[in-house]
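Table S2 (text version). Query chain:
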Amino acid sequence: MKIAEFCAKLDALLTTRATQPEKLDAIVSALRQALKLQPDEVALLTVDVAAETLVFLWPAKLAKSGFIPLSSRDSLAARTLRENKVFVNNRFSATFHASVFEQVKLDPAAEGRPLPIQKIISVPIPGETAPKGVLQLSRKATEPGQAGDDFSKEDMAALTEVAQIIAKHI
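Corresponding structure-token output:
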């Protein structure tokens, strides 16, 4: 599917959803299906300007687990927001980063520890004058070679367009 077609379908779908949880479910479902991601490989964060933090909208469990200070030097999400720039890291597990949220077990039925993020793409969600959030997609696995395809420049461009649609609805 072409990105313009995907964005048009996502925009139309989100227009029919009344509540934010319904919109979030639709966004995550569409991204998971299009990119063959697991439920815990999509994150949506929004900025709390007053508190100078990023807070999770998705996964819902992380919304109750904490926040990310905008000043954090170890957070890719905070850097994405501050610099208003897309970042791709296909060697993320080998990069020093804040990993506290990776340790949160999102699926209580899952056995063992959560898988580490091996590859990630982090995209600012545009606002009127500054980004109002961050979309992050990841590929998790025990080892980098098991994490699937690398994120590409084409993914960067496509997800920048998707972030513009998301911005209209959250």
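Notes on Table S2: Residues 99-108 have pLDDT under 50 and may be disordered. The longest strand covers residues 117-125.
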